[in-house]
């Protein structure tokens, strides 16, 4: 009888028979065994999921840092397509990697290079800063032109290294960036990720490539910041940025100078002034003014203090493309090899503008005439969100050294944009925003 007494005092109840107690103990042992079994199964599943999964990349916690390997690349068929796109088809042609190729300027530059017989390979991550369907439409346009756009991130060093292994690019046209002045107040880390970390990632790949390519890249007129001297010259100070976007572009220029000095990379920075035209960016004023005027919505027009004029040096995309190609054609070879500098390398900075600032209110008047619709205007004070009162380019250096000469006035350029806009959004299968 003593063997049925539990080891813990106070738990034994005399009314229970030995048979019932044995049955209860059997059930208890059975439950423990089942619990142990399923615990091992559960732990095994955790081990397999976290440690043996073929996709072990963690989900990024910061929404601005998109996954770098969300798209498949590599393999013989992929490499064949990359080589074909980058193949030079004209005498004295160049082979160019264009980052941000599905962007506004990237699409136009890639098309122009391809049409004159240069080898062109695009790279773009197709992020959703603005409507990705517009980027996909540009990609389709490039595909018809013979330009393959690799889907990937400039921060993916493995992908960049692979691209330079497959193709010995002579030049890089670096246009990938997080654009927009106001968006920086919502998502500042995206600017650091793309405009600083992304630039460093690209320069690291270029410095290690053999041969090293010559690099032309997009800076911005925003680096002039709070300067009051006009027109803006490349010799002017650029240490007073008015926005985080401007600060990242200024940082990019300093980083580029460092890589030029240490590694012998040939680098040319182009400061774009308010680029507009067909296939443009929906976050630009001329674009959403057009959309809202057609929809009968009120548009906000900013003015400076004391009813001061807000003006921009609007530059048509075709003129920007000419400047980009001229910068590529006049770029000297990098002087490094295997990441080591062998001599001084070219370093240049140019303004690419139109030299004719136009008040934003005049832009609206031009759109009214072209659209044959009166705009509902709401005049507001210029907010302290990074916007500056005016931009005005001094392009004498680009004229002298690149042969740069803009030829499209705002009336002519906007007429071409409106024609494209009405054609693109008239099908009914594309939303205008």
TrEMBL record:
InterPro entries recorded: Epimerase_deHydtase (IPR001509), NAD(P)-bd_dom_sf (IPR036291)
Source domain of life: Eukaryota
Family recorded in the similarity comment: Belongs to the NAD(P)-dependent epimerase/dehydratase family.
Transmembrane segments: 32-51
Domain (NAD-dependent epimerase/dehydratase): residue spans on this chain: 96-333
Keywords in alphabetical order: Carbohydrate metabolism, Golgi apparatus, Isomerase, Membrane, NAD, Transmembrane, Transmembrane helix
The keyword Cytoplasm appears for this protein: no
Gene Ontology CC annotation, any one: Golgi cisterna membrane
Protein name as catalogued: UDP-glucuronate 4-epimerase
Membrane topology: Multi-pass membrane protein
EC number: 5.1.3.6
GO molecular function, a single term: UDP-glucuronate 4-epimerase activity
Catalytic activities: UDP-alpha-D-glucuronate = UDP-alpha-D-galacturonate
Known partners and oligomeric status: Homodimer.
Subcellular location per the Swiss-Prot or TrEMBL entry: Golgi apparatus, Golgi stack membrane
SUPFAM superfamilies for this protein: NAD(P)-binding Rossmann-fold domains
Top EC class for this record: isomerase
RNA-binding keyword on record: no
